[in-house]
């Protein structure tokens, strides 16, 4: 098993996460021939309606330093709990339009159970613990701050 | 007299008006609880809001001390992902 | 919610599943703006060792008609149980080399919990219920029939 | 006299030698249990194996009937994915 690194890794990218990048990341794991299972979670910006207005985009901001430091602790805890081969996290900052991807969690392991459980736990912890905020952009220059449901 | 740096995030920036601002405080330290009262007096709309405070990137309780030069983050519930 | 189709869909492709196709499939879901979460599982052929010989590929065969008919029943059950927006399954037949992808399960929903739970349940049911067999190809023209662990 | 079509899958093809073969049976129907005995006599190595039988794509029990013209699949434990 690969140990997680000592220094916090960056997880943030400006704007949406491209499906081509996701395909490339998957392709780059083909040389890791001990992997038997990948579990991937993608968050996509939804055209919710807020008081009869439709969300057209979400603008993400974060306390970046704190988010990376907390994400580092989450990584350490996940690697201690699950025998993962690797774990990659990407989260958008700035504007992400409806239909575009804002979160990409990619967990790989020898067996499926570990990859699936680790991926789900990382997604839950990201939503609960990382200081990131989404501003839902509506029509007519209006907006509403997003709230994550339990 | 001391100066502390404050950062506000998410919905709280609508109340504080700026993401980043300073507060001048008499004395050499105050508690987080006292800091909150000062903030409520300056930004009355904050009082009804749910938020957590981090000092130098660590979440703190009301009893913690705030000293000169620290960085304070006012953080409403997270909504990433 | 989209209802599942009445006729069994094909799930089989010859050879490995390309990461580019996976990226394309993700991209094609960007116009479905009611989706908030995608959960993806990928099975990758592992370089296991069998009696000191390394697996170089798996050759998949299936009772195709039965597999498609059982997969259709699984789809119906999953759509009845979870409010999914869509569900796509791809499984390889024939030779898939080590490091290449042989199974792609792609579940999408408004909220993450449904997408994650449905994806996991589909993966488990595919492994247990679909009449598909993997022949692990070893060195020197030797082979061993794969066995799925619980 | 009747003929039934058999298909074998996975590890069982190593025993039956062919994926697809026919079996001639005297009479107009037999039970699955009787069919198994015929198979064990023709392919002794089958007897120790775990496998399920489907008749016309439906899994059947030992008491089911096998009639002329049906398709029979001999299936060892699955290993897809």
Protein model, in words:
The complex is a heterotetramer, with two copies of chain A (150 residues) and two copies of chain B (81 residues). Chain A has 150 residues and is an alpha+beta fold. Chain A has helices at residues 19-28, 64-81, 112-129; strands spanning 12-14, 37-44, 49-50, 53-54, 57-62, 84-97, 101-109, 132-137, 143-145. Chain A has one domain (12-145): Molybdopterin biosynthesis MoaE subunit (Aldehyde Oxidoreductase, domain 3), CATH 3.90.1170. Chain A contains three helices and nine strands, in the order βαββββαββαββ. In chain A, strands 1, 2, 5, 6, 7, 8 and 9 form a seven-stranded mixed β-sheet that branches. In chain A, α2 (64-81) packs antiparallel against α3. Chain A is globular, with a radius of gyration of 16 Å. The model of chain A has no long low-confidence stretch (mean pLDDT 94). Chain B is α+β, with helices and mostly antiparallel strands. Chain B has one domain (2-75): Beta-grasp domain (Ubiquitin-like (UB roll), Roll). The longest helix of chain B is centred in the middle third of the chain and has 11 residues, at 32-42. The model of chain B has no long low-confidence stretch (mean pLDDT 94). Chains A and B meet through β5, α2, α3 and β8 of A and loops of B. β2 of chain A pairs antiparallel with β2 of chain C.
């Amino acid at each position: 098993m690969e140990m997680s690194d000592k220094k916090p890794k960056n997880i943030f990218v400006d704007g949406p996460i491209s499906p081509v990048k996701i395909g490339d990341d998957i392709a780059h794991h083909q040389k890791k021939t001990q992997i038997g299972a990948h579990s991937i979670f993608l968050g996509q910006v939804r055209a919710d309606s807020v008081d009869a207005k439709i969300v057209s985009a979400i603008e993400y901001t974060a306390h970046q330093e704190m988010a990376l430091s907390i994400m580092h602790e989450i990584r350490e805890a996940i690697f201690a709990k699950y025998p993962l081969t690797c774990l990659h996290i990407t989260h958008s900052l700035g504007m992400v339009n409806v239909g575009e991807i804002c979160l990409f969690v990619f967990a790989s392991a020898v067996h499926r159970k570990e990859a699936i459980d680790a991926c789900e736990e990382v997604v839950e912890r990201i939503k609960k613990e990382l200081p990131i905020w989404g501003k839902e952009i509506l029509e007519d220059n209006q907006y509403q701050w997003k709230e994550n449901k339990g | 007299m001391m100066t502390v740096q404050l950062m506000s995030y998410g919905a709280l920036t609508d109340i504080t008006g700026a993401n980043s601002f300073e507060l001048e405080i008499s004395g050499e330290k105050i508690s987080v609880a006292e800091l909150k009262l000062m903030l409520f007096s300056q930004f009355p709309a904050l009082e009804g809001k749910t938020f957590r405070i981090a000092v130098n990137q660590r979440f703190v309780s009301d009893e913690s001390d705030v000293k000169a030069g620290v960085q304070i983050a006012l953080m409403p519930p997270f909504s990433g992902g």
